[in-house]
Amino acid sequence: MTPTKLLIAIALFAFFIGNSSYAQRGGINWTKDGNAYYQNSGGEIITVTLPKNERKTIISRSLLTPPNAAPLSVRSFKLTDDGTKALIYTNTKKVWRQDSRGDYWVADITKNTLTKIGKNKPASSLMFAKFSPDGSKVAYVSEHNIYVEDLNTNTIKSLTTNGTSRMINGTFDWVYEEEFGCLDGFRWSPDGKSIAYWQIDATKIKNFLMINTTDSIYSFNVPVEYPKVGQDPSSCKIGIVNIETAQTNWLAVPGDNVQHYIPRMEWIPNTNEVILQQLNREQNESKVFVANSTTGSISEIYKETDKAWIDPTDGWIWLNGNKEFIWESEKDGWRHLYRISKDGKKQTLITNGSYDIMSVNLIDEKSNLVYFTASPTNATQKYLYKTKLDGKGKLEMVTSSVFPGTHTYSISPNGLFASHSYNSASVSPITEWMNFATMNPLTMEGSITNQLAKQQPPKNKVEFFKVKTEDGIEMDGWMKKPDNFDPTKKYPVVFFVYGEPASQTAADVFGAGRNSLYAGDMAKDGYIYISMDNRGAPVPKGAAWRKSIYKNIGIINIRDQAMATKKLLATYSFMDRDRVAVHGWSGGGSSTLNLLFQYPEIYQTGIAVAAVANQLTYDNIYQERYMGTPFPSTDAYVKGSPITYAKNLVGNLLYIHGTGDDNVHYQNAEMLINELVKNKKVFQLMSYPNRTHGISEGAGTREHLSLTYTKFLKENCPPGGR
To answer: What is this structure's pTM?
Structure first.
């Protein structure tokens, strides 16, 4: 629904495409022992051993060159545990958001051979290929069927045969990918004798028919299986297929396959058991099941309910010889970590206090420590913290408070080394390699301190502020004032808004205060640029803050933004009340429309891109999660939809949408247009033929979008102090 939500999906992509461990989710491809990392460098795959950065070529350019062909362009790679073979991913194509379809080659380092996998399959049709635990086989998905290829005999066996465009084995349909971040839909068993996989039955999902009028003389339909609000989702089930017999046994997961989702599943390490999370249709009840793949028995070990919604887990981290796992929950009002026994009978709170954990970075079971990202006192920032894994410790800040802003870490599996990245609104991204045991940089030359000293601080810094509305809601925000700011003058104010649960906008990160849609320099031209996070934004302020937006998208978030704007305009005399503009994309486009329509006395100008004008047109997983199912009433959906208030338009509106948007369909634009026309409201429209949600395809598209945006803003909200 939003470009930022796409980034969330990309972050999850590393997990789902490789079923990798927590230690590898920070962007570094660590070796198994954690003393080095792999890198694609100059067309070769190398290892860099720490702490001395010793480089060694593992796979040479010559080995990556097929006979009579150019060297492979490596998109990603994965080595076997013994380091003797590597899977090379190349020639990739997009499926929906991700380039999760392509070609795979096996580079045998010992034999110095390069072999293409799935030679009889269509080009760029293989998905999520991965080695069996012993490295003797490779399994992959092609055209919605799962195959296994024996590397010794080069024979290919089909493990499923019923795959079609709508019967999906080993991967997912549009909405599972978009809203749950699900891409890779199968898992090798620890003993390599079977594979657990999702089967998605989308045969009853209606097609949404987009129309392509630009790629041929005669237009043609582009069908997308898309379950809208109120429509049943695809049926989902988990099968265990035997590699030898190709026979599948289906897990008898309790509950209706259509009215429940299974967003997460994996094998429990070193066992024949599968663990999975099931969410009900309303997504306010989460159950965890453990199934025995041999006997078929399945038991519910954990259950949680919520008045609003429950998020899918990011995965299971196992402790105590796989007898316990780490679980994230908001059940006490904060996102905390718990350790839960495999039978669910024992639960121990690990993190305790009025703060949210944001992500897990490292479990150091030997030292009884868990490292995680949090920011208890400033919701715009991120730092590394630690506490005792047994729940008996205090919260300890690991990151130095000398560097305020946003910190991320990729820690080696053995906890000896880390890549530490730092940025803020005034610091461009810098990274240091650390001895994580001592928390010292490996070299002073490469340290954060040394790199920071070489940066020139910006002359016109972004200012962070808090504003309390007349409703008593305190919001975080940032403000970029014009260059050569004169407090005796009045300047136009432009607000950047998202406003829905999928994205934060007021973070202390590099890029805050910059508008990528503006053709030029807003500060130089004389604009004040502001963004604020309302209730419902996914910030570390507790579950009550985040979930107060439940059944209130288009209402509570809009009032928060409007009342905060009203307070700022009343507080600062240098803000021109007659030149107030707002803009946003996707969910931010929806917020822009609602602000312009519901509060015309505050906002004179709005630029909305790819907005959901009618919430009943969007997909069921996202919209029903945050708005509740539309049974028996759609009142909340209608109340929160911009189209309901279009008749109130007074100011200047530029509406922008791609006609090929498979995410937020162009029908939203047409429904909105009809309502505006019916009420004789004059506005401007920019449709981009056959462009998707990101409006990036085609020569000159982004430049044209930027010029269109900027021209409209300057004409209707003129820059400069007065």
So the answer is: 0.95
